[in-house]
Amino acid sequence: MTGYAIVDIPGWESFSMNSADRDAVDARLQELAHGTVPEDVPRDTATPFRSEVYRHLSRLMDQARTAGAGLVCIPTGRSGDTVIPASYTVSEWTDPDHETADPVAILKVLASQSAGEASIVDLDGQPGLREEDIEPARPGEEPLALYAGRRVTYTVSSPVDPRAWVVFVFATIGSGDPAGPLADILVEVFDAHLSTLRWDD
User: pTM score, two decimals?
Assistant: First the structure.
């Protein structure tokens, strides 16, 4: 995978989707689920809630693996009493059949076909496409898509292979309104986070 460094979002953690890291990720998810309920809460009340949190986090990781993500980033802390309803994934895709072409030309074609707002951006010298859209709830198709969500995708040309693309996909439901103030703030945080990306030499 194309290497890069990026400034962490405070209160967020990254989880490797490498199969060799699966046990470590699962153990951390269990720790996080356990920590969602204070120790003084009765066990018969705490256990079902912790189990549901663990199942939700596990489904999120499984979905990311199925989609081919190499990394999942989620908020594991709170902002006051507010749980931050957001996450993002990182994946890399290489077109084995595509001859070397101008990445900007390819991105312009993708932008013209985008269903949402699309713009050409620069991430540490590499051209990329930023797309933003609100996706409807799809509970019948996807267990995690119970609510409409704000989605921001960056598709960035890899600096080491012109046929490769690094894809960052951010999603949030905000406070239940994906076009509301909380969603706006979380998108701003994600955009600022990606502005700190620096590719490995």
Answer: 0.90
